[in-house]
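Researcher: We're teaching a course module on how sequence relates to structure. For the next exercise, students receive a sequence and then see the predicted structure as tokens, so they can try to spot secondary structure elements on their own. Here is the exercise chain.
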Amino acid sequence: MVLLKHKEGNPLRPIISQMTTATYQAAKTLNSILTPYEPTGRSVASATEFIDLLRTAPPCNDIASLDVESLFTHVPVDETISIILERVYRSNVPALDIPEDVLRAMLEICTKEAPFLSHRGELFRQVDGVAMGSPLGVLFANMYMAKVEERTFQNHPPPGIYARYIDDIFITTSTDDEVPLLLAAFESNSCLAFTCERSIDGRLPFLDVDISKQDQSFKTKVYTKATNVGRCLNARGECPAAYKRSVVASYNLL
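Model: And here is the predicted structure for the students to work with:
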């Protein structure tokens, strides 16, 4: 269990490591095979890509961010597996050299049949939603969200700017009622619940970027949470090298 100190009320969030499960390596392999099939048209891969998008953004009335409540644990597994198979075998991308029924069975085994131990030593399996420690978690979340966006924007006009990073969404608005209408459209086209944060005096944090709306452009700087005490990851600490590199990169981001 992880304590989210930056969230109101300091809620607990279950983070389940699947590294010791029998399906972990298979799930990693499936993730590497299927990640190239993720639709990327409305998503951003990093804060750097998001900032580049802002630099060419047209003027707007206001800015806001939307957040999916507990996306990973609310992703409908069976529906998302069908979405993945539709994308792999019945779209304008080269199909995998794996029979569709085999891929479906493998995805089901690596999600609904993956057992894990609780902190009390009890054995469980997560029958719906994806575990936040699963190698397939981000893939399933992105695939489902891309389908929700496709359904929504078939009948609802998209905002001037729409950028999503997994479960966090940044939008620009032209009218005050645009946000509640978009929230309602998202919820009617999914099984998810969404929250919204509006800008205050034209300022809004998103992806650790402090965004300030100007008349014709946006200004950005690093956003620091109120809970930040100024400590930095120790370069000699026991931590994966990728995390250490990301710390260094974050200091040069903006």
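Model: If you want an answer key for the exercise: The radius of gyration is 20 Å. Residues 1-5 have pLDDT under 50 and may be disordered.
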